[in-house]
Amino acid sequence: MKIVKLVSGGIDSYIMSREITDGINLYIDFGQKYAKQEIKALERLRVKFEKITINTTDTSAAINSNFYINNRNLCLTTLACMFYSPDIIYLGANKYDSHIDKSEYECEKMSEILSRYASEKLNGKKVIVKSPYWNKSKEQMIEEFSDKQKLLDTFSCYNPINNKPCGDCPACLRRTVLLENIGLKTGVKLSERIIHENLNKIHPKDRDRLSRLIFYLQKSSKVTAVDIDGILCECSNKPILEKVPIKSNIDKLNNLGGYNLLFTARLEVDRKDTEQWLKKHKVKYDALIMSKLPYHTLIDDRSKKEF
Question: pLDDT confidence of 62, banded at 50, 70, 90?
């Protein structure tokens, strides 16, 4: 049985290369601007790998302009099939991977396509695309990995500057938060732009990922969670857009400093109206987190009467 493991120098594929010892580690250079840094990371990590280089001189500008690259994993697995004719292709994907082409379902679809055209006779060979980590989060992968210090030698950045992580892209944020939260000092300073971008977009999809980011922020800044109904506006049965603001509390919130998260029992379907109300009344905040448990009383060790 022939096995090919697609590696990049990042945390997931490095752990996979160490834990699955059979097969070939394969790096594909298709013109991505961070290829040089990823290859250096694989060399630092002492991962033995083979490389396919695609001449993309005329198209690399288009490839480098986006974080998400269309059809990326389908193309990479196709190249692996062309050059190696494998039975199994491993990707370093995990349970909560947000990329559309790194889910278990999509890998099954890729397997069907690759198997169909894997030989001159249709359906002549079975090709399986999969990950060994479908049932694990990235945190579980790291927790169970024995040589955590080596993870500092990995590289994940979409826009490296002077061969170093930019600190301003999603890959930098994910890697920095994960490693710093287990006590490893990355030396990467995340930009306020990427922090705020993630505070505002991540929570509807993955509450755990938001919590990891907040754990990271708490190490250097104050993080305050503030309810809306009864704190920033009067409790009433009025429609959201007609609720009466409590201006004194809004002023206090706007001057708190640090990172301020609005944490409300309103449902996700109320987000648009809530954001409109907050904008109308000039409420400053870093994230709006919906669907808080609608309890009567909260007994918590961090409760403080900020207002």
Answer: low
